[in-house]
Amino acid sequence: MLTIEELKELKKNTGYTNEMIARLSGVPIGTVQKIFAGITKRPRYDTLKALDQALTRDAVTETSDSPGILSLKDSEAAYHYTPHKASAYQRIGGFVLDRQGQYTIDDFEKLPEDGHYELIDGVIYDMATTTFLHQILIGMIFTEFMQYKYKSGNDCWPVLSPFDVRLDRDDRTMIKPDLMVLCADDRVEDDMAGQTDQTETDQAAANLSVLQRRRNHYHDGAPRFVMEVISPSSRRRDLVLKLNKYMDAGVYEYWIVDPDQEQILVYDFKSDNYPDVFTFQDKVPVAISGGELSIDFAQILDRLR
Questions:
Q1: DSSP-assigned letters across all residues of 82-116
Q2: Distance from C-alpha of 184 to C-alpha of 216, rounded to nearest angstrom
Q3: Domains within the chain, CATH numbers bracketed
Q4: How far does Cα 86 stand from its chain's mean position?
Q5: For strand 218-220 and strand 164-166, is the pairing parallel, antiparallel, or unpaired?
Q6: How crowded is residue 90: how many other Cβ atoms within 10 Å of its Cβ?
Q7: What is the Cα–Cα distance from 260 to 2, expressed in whole angstroms?
Q8: What average pLDDT does range 196-212 have in this prediction?
Q9: Of 17, 24, 149, 156, which residue is least crowded by CB atoms under 10 Å?
Q10: Residue 266's closest CA among 258, 145, 274, 140?
Q11: How far apart are CA 289 and CA 274, in angstroms?
């Protein structure tokens, strides 16, 4: 759960008024005002929890003049709107987000090229800028995966963000995992499923290396492995929304790394027992490697100090 200072920062980034927060959370307006003014130093747990959920959830907030407008909490400052005005829509540059839940990949590809966005079930998310720690942590883990790839000689390639994934193979979702592993036979399993007779052309396509079949600008389908490093602005999306998306799409293994809590949640969807919870003092085995690769987070933490 977010601290009071984190809630204040998120309130600033979203542009929410005390009245809006009170309406979304169910907390009395007087209590909200005292908390954000610093008068109430130690709010009750259930009050903080309600404010946390109001400011970090992906919820639809309706105004009197513009019902059904989605207010996103994932941007540092990209989605501000003024309540009770018909023009109160989120914007990305000159792109007005007035159809959240209905956007397609065609819309997604028209967004400014200098931004970092995701499209999930027709909703466009403006991703917060990553921190130095976030980037270094991902880079260290990526290096471990790459070294294992060369050592084992397998045909699986670790890939860093930003690289698009058309997760559901439809026109409503395009995501950018922090780190993923793409294997040569992932596409083969999907494309050849249910086929009993393969032509020579089919077989040739199946035998292409992962690099030869990934030269387009996105990956089509579920990666073998996905890792997300969460931040306060992405916590709910990574812990709930993406968790279910990855599981349903057929990802084998999903890691959620939380630098603030120094914790790793490992979802091995091929097993019946998940999640496994690890700390930054543990060696975390990579299930898709059959136990051959483990990431030593204690060593990573030591290098970061």
A1: -TT-TT--EEETTEEE--TT---HHHHTTS-TTS-
A2: 15
A3: 1-56 (1.10.260), 62-128 (no CATH), 132-304 (3.90.1570.10)
A4: 31
A5: parallel
A6: 20
A7: 11
A8: 49
A9: 17
A10: 274
A11: 17
